[in-house]
């Protein structure tokens, strides 16, 4: 199970990286089209869609690598028992919020597909397509928070501290 979850988080990170490459391609195409005097409609909109997809798809991987912002000042002042209780409360609350966000994101995709909602720009993209990155990313983030909560309950959770955060300059 651990290998499957880690593969899921890494796969989402790779999709986020592909979105970043697509974002770069859209920006370069936009710049080149202006310089060479031709127009490619929708490049700005697609760059925005890809940026949002990259951000949401990378959330779970970022969480599992300890790169999300944490309030360690408060945690450091607490005793071991209080720290564990606070961690459990925070992970349960984060799981609930991520679950609600994932639910409503999936509902938004479904409704956009049902109503044939399209973008108002000249690209006329069906909006459920770019919204998929939001829905999938938040669903994977929900899974990651539940994973962290279960690990904390089992006493097997290791909080990763990124190298940069441990440096004091």
What would your notes on this structure say?
This protein is an all-alpha fold. It has one domain (2-159). 75% of the residues lie in helices and 0% in strands. It is built from seven helices and no strands. The chain is elongated. The N and C termini lie far apart (40 Å).
Brief account:
With 169 residues, the chain is mostly helical. Helix content is 75%, strand content 0%. The chain has one domain.
Furnish the topology, listing elements before pairings.
Layout lengths: L1 H34 L7 H15 L1 H6 L7 H6 L2 H35 L13 H27 L8 H4 L3
Helix pairs in contact: 1-2, 1-6, 2-6, 5-6
Percent strand: under 5%
Strand tally: 0
Rg on CA atoms, Å: 20 Å
- What characteristic shape results from the CA principal axes? elongated
Distance between termini? 40 Å
Stretches with pLDDT under 50, minimum 5 residues:
none
* Count of discrete structural domains: 1
Q: Give the % helix.
A: over 70%
Q: Report the mean per-residue pLDDT as an integer.
A: 90
Number of helices: 7
Q: Decide which structural class fits the backbone.
A: mainly alpha
Q: Main β-sheet, in a few words?
A: none
Order of helices and strands: HHHHHHH
The quaternary organization reads as single chain
């Amino acid at each position: 199970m651990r290998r499957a979850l880690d593969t899921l988080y890494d796969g989402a990170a790779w999709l986020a990286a592909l979105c970043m490459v697509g974002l770069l391609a859209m920006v370069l195409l936009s710049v080149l089209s202006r310089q060479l005097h031709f127009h490619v409609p929708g490049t700005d909109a697609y760059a925005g869609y890809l940026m949002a997809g990259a951000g949401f798809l990378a959330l779970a991987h970022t969480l599992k690598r300890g790169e999300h912002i944490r309030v360690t000042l408060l945690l450091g002042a607490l005793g071991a028992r209080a720290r564990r209780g606070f961690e459990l409360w925070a992970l349960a609350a984060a799981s609930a919020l991520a679950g609600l966000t994932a639910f409503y994101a999936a509902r938004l995709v479904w409704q956009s597909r049902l109503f044939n909602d399209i973008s108002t720009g000249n690209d006329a993209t069906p909006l459920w397509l770019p919204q998929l990155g939001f829905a999938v990313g938040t669903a994977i983030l929900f899974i990651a928070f539940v994973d962290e909560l279960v690990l904390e309950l089992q006493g097997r959770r290791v909080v990763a501290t990124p190298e940069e955060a441990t440096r004091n300059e």
